[in-house]
Amino acid sequence: MFREAVFGLILAFLVTCIILQEKRFEELDSAHSHLWNRVEDLTQANQNLSNIVHERKFKELELSHTHLLETVANLTLANTNLSKIVQGRRFKELELSHTHLLETVANLTLANRNLSKIVQDSSNKVAFTAGTSGAGNIGTGSIIAFPVVINNEGGGYNPGTGVFTAPRSGQYVFFVSAQGYGSNTLYVSIIHNGGAKVMTMSDGGRGKDFYDSGTNLAALNLQQGDTVWAKCQSGSSYYSEGIPITTFSGFLI
Ligand SMILES: *[C@@H]1O[C@H](CO)[C@@H](O)[C@H](O)[C@H]1NC(C)=O
Ligand SMILES: *[C@@H]1O[C@H](CO)[C@@H](O)[C@H](O)[C@H]1NC(C)=O
Ligand SMILES: *[C@@H]1O[C@H](CO)[C@@H](O)[C@H](O)[C@H]1NC(C)=O
Ligand SMILES: *[C@@H]1O[C@H](CO)[C@@H](O)[C@H](O)[C@H]1NC(C)=O
Ligand SMILES: *[C@@H]1O[C@H](CO)[C@@H](O)[C@H](O)[C@H]1NC(C)=O
Description:
Elements: H1 2-123, E1 127-131, E2 136-137, E3 148-153, E4 157-158, E5 163-165, E6 170-179, E7 186-192, E8 195-202, E9 213-222, E10 227-234, E11 237-238, E12 247-252
Antiparallel strand pairs: 1-3, 1-12, 2-11, 4-5, 5-10, 6-9, 6-12, 7-8, 7-10
The structure holds 2-acetamido-2-deoxy-beta-D-glucopyranose (5 copies).
One 2-acetamido-2-deoxy-beta-D-glucopyranose (NAG) binds next to helix 1.
């Protein structure tokens, strides 16, 4: 009987245990289900959030992209504008430089013309000095030739004939210095186109050896081709040395 009772108790205990275990299982199962649902919800929420984030990011990217496109378009326009400005400036600079160059060329052309004139003027200079190399005897009325040429700028003086021919028109100055020989009284005139203009006189001292000198100067207005020479107007002999004493000079002023 007792054994039966104990057995019954044990059985009851076991049944209770089983029942309790069953309950616990159900409870656990329910908790598990609940947790599972929660996980699913959270996963969904996470997915939603993820989607939102993605969407936002995409929109942000889209916005950023649009902004970038607009910036690029603005910069391209600005660049085009700047290019135009730079080109415009460059053109203006070139124009200015061109004007400056034209002015420089004009100035240089003028300077060149001025210099050419100076060079031409200097090449148009006329001046000569010629002398006799020693004492000489010439007849009255003869042209005195001065064979020793000291200077003959412009080539107007002819040492072979003693005649000066004006290479160009202008105001000329002529000078003669005639040294009479011993007691010979000598008159030398400056002749322009055949006409005597001025004359020198060297007085021979009436028989004594005076070797007197006579000089004279004439400023003459010559046309190109006019001739001027020194003429023995009266007397015959003149005196000179290696360094000429009796001389004839002329120059254009
Ligand atoms: C997830 O989004 C769907 C529709 O977009 C919505 O019906 C649901 O309630 C959201 N769930 C959670 C947990 O946010
Ligand atoms: C582009 O230019 C326009 C007009 O000048 C301006 O309103 C806009 O803000 C600019 N956009 C950007 C992105 O610089
Ligand atoms: C470009 O030039 C145009 C007209 O020339 C002007 O309307 C515009 O504002 C300029 N844009 C920029 C970015 O300089
Ligand atoms: C040209 O000459 C004028 C007058 O002499 C002067 O004022 C000007 O500066 C010169 N121009 C140049 C480019 O040399
Ligand atoms: C050229 O000569 C003229 C007058 O003869 C003068 O006015 C001018 O300044 C000169 N110019 C130059 C560049 O020498």
